[in-house]
Hints:
It is a single chain. The chain has helices at residues 2-19, 50-58, 120-123, 133-136, 149-163, 176-181, 187-195, 213-222, 243-247, 254-257, 260-266, 277-280, 295-301, 333-345, 356-364, and strands at residues 34-37, 63-64, 67-70, 76-78, 101-105, 108-112, 168-169, 172-173, 205-209, 229-234, 272-274, 305-306, 350-353. It is an alpha/beta fold. It has a single domain (2-17, 34-84, 115-364), classed as TIM Barrel. Strand 1 (34-37), helix 2 and strand 2 (63-64) form a beta-alpha-beta unit. The longest helix is centred in the first third of the chain and has 18 residues, at 2-19.
Amino acid sequence: MIRSTLLLVACMGATFSTTTSAQDLRPLPSDTPLVIGHRGASALRPEHTLASYAKAIEDGADFIEPDLVSTKDGALVSRHENEIGGTTDVAAHPEFAARKTTKTIDGHAIEGWFTEDFTLAELKTLRARERLPELRGTAFDGQFQIVTLDEIIDFAAAEAAARGRVIGIIPEIKHPTYFQQHGLAMEAKVLATLQAHAYTRTAPVVIQSFEVANLKQLHTLLGTTHPNIKLLQLTSAPDEKPGDVLAAGGSQTYAQILSAKGLREVATYAQILGPSLRSIIPLDAQQQLGKPTAVVRDAHAAGLQVQPYTFRPENYFLPKDKREGDAPATRHEAGSIAEMRAFLDAGVDGFFTDDPALGRAAVDGWRKP
Length: 369
């Protein structure tokens, strides 16, 4: 039933995407923080599937997030990593056994199967599976395909038209330097794909990256001709370096990017900062929420919005004072909402969540201090 409905809506998307402008729909809220469906509703469905995006939209997400990697033949597909052994059934396909290999990506040796070694047609024979089965079960394994950016845009356009409200798209370009080095650069392809659809010529779009150079490249390519597209600088662990910096032998770390001076530099090419949760509110010695850092204040002073990642409802991910019991897989919805509201109180402008229904509840029931 789920698959039939998704197929119908996906097919409808081809019509809606060419006939419906986002300008005809109810816009995103401008007076409340935004709820971003992280890989869709990945706490409830296998990530980066139409089922996951559908659930996120149904549950009130303002944006859906497709992570983008490239296939061998240059198609843009949605996977969190180019290694797909953990999120598909590729290991069960004997015809692809010989493609298992080890590659070095952003300085880390990774073993598995990689999207750039498969054509799009080959990837379409695979089926998605849950990345965190020990926490989220396997009820939906084997039901859904890998999808392309084109298919996601068509789907979002169909859903937006059916619901009468704008649904933003916030793609992340994964490992840009790595793919550029392999002749599979994604930046120009992403922009061309967005321009090929009427919906994303006007709908809110945010392009993310953990690297710096490709965001600066996109800033130049966009100029002032695409006012609906913004750029978001992601940051990771303070002592880590962006992939492009690492590849060039540079010294810049994420801690330097998150400094007041670094954030002023980010504001010259991006409009939004996407830090990890603990960059904003770290955990104290008891593993409970501590006091907010200066990141939100400094980012706002530089003219940047702040949209951190990622809120997850299972005990395993929650601060100790927001858990229910000790079992790692236990969902504590009230605890997750309380954690989100602590960040809303700290001044964030939106956030990524694996469970957009809880994100919606956190925002809709929150009052700005």
